[in-house]
Every structure is written in C-alpha cells, then in structure tokens.
C-alpha cells in the first residue's frame, strides 16, 4: 500500500488526471487492487482473495474499455492457475467475483459501456507512423512513431519521476517467476495495442500503471534496502517526504 501511495505521488501525469477525470483514477485504482490481490492469491491460495481480485478486474472493465487489454492476459492466467490446481473454490470465487459487479449494476450498464472509442481506427500501419488524419481529431503528429512512444512511459518522468532509474536497475532475476513474465507480456500486448491507435495521449498509457509499477517493484525494493543501510529511519522518512513534496512542483512543469 505504501509503495502504491508513493508512486501515485511521484507520477505527475497521474496526479494531474486525478483532479480532472474520475473514471481513469477509479480504473487504475481497481487495476492496482486486482494485481495486488492476484499476486496475493498466488502466495496464499485463499479463494476469497482471488474472488476479490476478479471483482476488482470486473469493476475496472466496467469503468474503462482498455482494462480487458491491459489486465486480461493476467486475469486469464490466474483463472487457468486455479483450474490447473483443481481449486474449485478459487475458480468459483473468481467467476462470482467477475460477474458480481455486473449483476449488481445490470440496470446501469449496456454494451455501449465497452465501446472502443477510437479503437475502430486501429491498424498495424499506425505503429510506424507519426502523422495521422482522422475524422474526429483532424491532422495531428507526434515526435516519435507510435511503436516507440508506446514503450516510453516506463522511463518518462511524467509517469514516474524515477522510472528510468528503476528500469536501469532491473535484473533478469526479477522476471524468474511465471507471474512476472505474464505481467510483462501483458504490458507488451497493451503497448502494441496502443501503438496501433491513431490518437495517442497520456490517459491511454496511464492504464498500464498497475502492471508497469508492479514490474518495477523489485528494483524499488533494492533501492530502499540500500537507502536503509546508508541512512537512519528518520532521515529516510524525510527523504521520502521531500520526494513527494518535490513531485508536486514537478507536476506543474508537466501540466501543459
């Protein structure tokens, strides 16, 4: 929980969108809860934990159309793990959790909720392009081709002030677990999905925040361990507080 709170504070784009959009922040929060609960179930094997995870996943899907793309592969793998372990309680809890939010709010939802907006203009050719002409947005261009810009968020200071340092600190051993590999593959799939869209914006990329920051946690944990061995707890707390306060000022720099 402390890790998520700190990263939320160190993400200028996320802090900015928190004050301008409700659905994005709700979907991201549900995505973070889904990933955390899913990883917790892999460790503890408690059926209720997996059910809660899928309830969060279902809520995220109901909130933002991109949730099935950014979280779907990990969700399918978790359910497959429950079936492979012949854990009927966990599989049943996952199913109930997935349909629960929809069943409770069936009167408020329709298939239009899952409309893919500008996804109907998705194309492989968009991945290598920088300039586009669409009926909804007219002529627009970007600095990098879509394929490159889709992988920028991991190192862009607007998404995480120290993301580039965490990426540089990643090790091959951080991806030894099956869960880490599935999450990484899910992130790549989502990045490729975004690369095929003609319209690019920070809101699209922020949907991958739960997975991206989970993958960076081992590097963050090592950094905090080194920091803890160098400074006293009180000094470490002041250091973290300074980072959070500094992030608020940096937020203004990325406000445009």
What features would you highlight for this structure?
single chain, 256 residues, mainly alpha, two-stranded antiparallel ribbon, 12 helices
What features would you describe in this structure?
The protein is mainly α and 256 residues long. The protein is 65% helix and 3% strand. A two-stranded antiparallel ribbon has the order 1-2. β1 and β2 form a beta hairpin. α3 runs parallel beside α5 (67-84). The protein is globular and about 50 Å long. The model has no long low-confidence stretch (mean pLDDT 81).
Topology:
Layout: H1 2-9, H2 12-18, H3 22-44, H4 47-63, H5 67-84, H6 88-104, E1 131-134, E2 138-141, H7 146-149, H8 163-168, H9 178-195, H10 202-206, H11 209-230, H12 233-253
Antiparallel strand pairs: 1-2
Quickly give the structural class: mainly alpha
Strand order of the largest sheet: 1-2
| Biggest β-sheet description | 2 strands, antiparallel
Radius of gyration: 19 Å
Distance between the termini: 30 Å
Average pLDDT figure: 81
State the order of secondary-structure elements, H for helix, E for strand. HHHHHHEEHHHHHH
Q: What percent strand?
A: under 5%
The helix tally amounts to 12
Give helix % range. 55-70%
Identify low-pLDDT runs: none
Instruction: Count every beta strand, where a strand is a DSSP E run of 2 or more residues.
Output: 2
Gross morphology is globular
């Amino acid at each position: 929980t402390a890790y998520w709170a700190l990263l939320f504070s160190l993400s200028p784009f996320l802090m900015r969108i928190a004050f301008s959009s409700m659905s994005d922040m709700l979907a991201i929060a549900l995505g973070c809860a889904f990933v955390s609960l899913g990883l917790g179930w892999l460790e503890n094997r408690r059926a209720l934990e997996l059910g809660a995870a899928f309830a969060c996943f279902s809520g995220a899907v109901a909130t933002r159309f991109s949730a099935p793309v950014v979280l779907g592969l990990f969700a399918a793998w978790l359910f497959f793990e429950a079936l492979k372990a012949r854990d009927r309680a966990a599989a049943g809890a996952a199913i109930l959790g997935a349909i629960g939010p929809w069943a409770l709010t069936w009167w408020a939802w329709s298939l239009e909720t899952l409309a893919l907006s500008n996804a109907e203009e998705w194309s492989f050719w968009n991945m290598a392009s920088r300039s586009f002409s669409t009926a909804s947005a007219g002529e627009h261009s970007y600095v990098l081709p879509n394929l490159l810009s889709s992988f920028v968020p991991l190192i862009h200071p607007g998404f995480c002030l120290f993301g580039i340092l965490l990426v540089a600190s990643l090790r091959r051993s951080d991806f030894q677990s099956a869960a880490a590999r599935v999450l990484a593959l899910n992130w790549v799939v989502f990045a490729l999905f975004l690369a095929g869209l003609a319209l690019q914006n920070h809101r699209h990329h922020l949907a991958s925040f739960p997975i991206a920051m989970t993958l960076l946690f081992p590097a963050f944990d090592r950094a905090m361990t080194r920091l803890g061995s160098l400074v006293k707890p009180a000094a470490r707390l002041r250091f973290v507080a300074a980072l959070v306060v500094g992030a608020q000022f940096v937020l203004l720099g990325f406000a445009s």
